[in-house]
Automatic annotation (TrEMBL):
GN (gene name): pyrF
PROSITE patterns linked to this entry: OMPDECASE (PS00156)
Subunit structure: Homodimer.
The name this protein goes by in its record: Orotidine 5'-phosphate decarboxylase
Active site, per annotation: 61, 63, 66
EC id: 4.1.1.23
Family stated for the protein in its record: Belongs to the OMP decarboxylase family. Type 1 subfamily.
One of the GO biological process terms: 'de novo' UMP biosynthetic process
Origin organism lineage: Bacteria, Bacillati, Bacillota, Bacilli, Bacillales
Amino acid sequence: MKRLEPVYFALDFETGQEAMEFLENHHLCGIPVKVGMELFYREGPGMIHQLKEAGHSIFLDLKLHDIPETVRRTMLNLAKLNVDVVNVHAQGGGTMMEAARRGLEEGSPEERPLLLAVTMLTSTDQTMIEKELLLDRPLIEVVEHYGELAEINGVDGVVCSVEESQMIKEYTNLYALTPGIRLEGGIKHDQKRVATPAVAMEKGSDSIVVGRAIREADDPHAVYQQIKEEFHGDFQHHSRLN
C-alpha cells in the first residue's frame, strides 16, 4: 500500500500547462500534489503521467459516488495510473466503498493506492444538513458514522474538516486528511469549516491539502515551506506516516 504525504498542494488550475509552469517557476518541483476534477477532466491521464515523471506524489481527488460495480471498475482503471491516493464519497454507502477497495486491489500491479472516503465537504454546515440534505442528525454525528462505516468496509482514511479530525482519530484507526487549510487571517472563500496548519496538527490531522494560500501568495515557495513548518516539519507526531 502506498503512503500518505503530510502536505498536498491543490493544483486548481485550468490547464496542465499552467499547473506545470507554476510548479517549475516557483521551485515546487517534486512536491506532493492534489489533482482534482477540473484539471483531470480537461487533461486526462496524460496529466498524471507528466506529474509522475516529474517526481510528484499524487492524490487524485475525483470523489467517486456511483453504484458499487461502476465504482469498482473505475477504481480498477485509476489504479493503473500509479497514483498514490484516491477517494470516494462515504455517502455512497458501505458496499460502494468496499467495491472501490476491491477495484484498486484488482487494478494495481504492485502497491495499491490509499483509499479515502469524503465524509462531508467543507462547504457543508449544519443548516445545509438539515434544510437541504434533510438529515436529522448533528453534522459531527454524521461524520462519525461515515468514518465508522468507512473503516468497517476497508477504507484507509477519511477526508474531513479539521474540527472533525480529532473525533475521527479517537473513534477509528483511519487516516484523517483535512482540506480547508488557511494561514492565519486567510479568506475562507466557499469553505465554511477551515483551520490553520498548526490547528490541524493539534487536532490530529495526518495530512492537509492547501490550495489558494500557496497559489495566490506573492512567494508560493516560501508559503509552502511555512505551511510545512507550521504543520510540524518532522511529522514525528504521526508515526503511521513514517
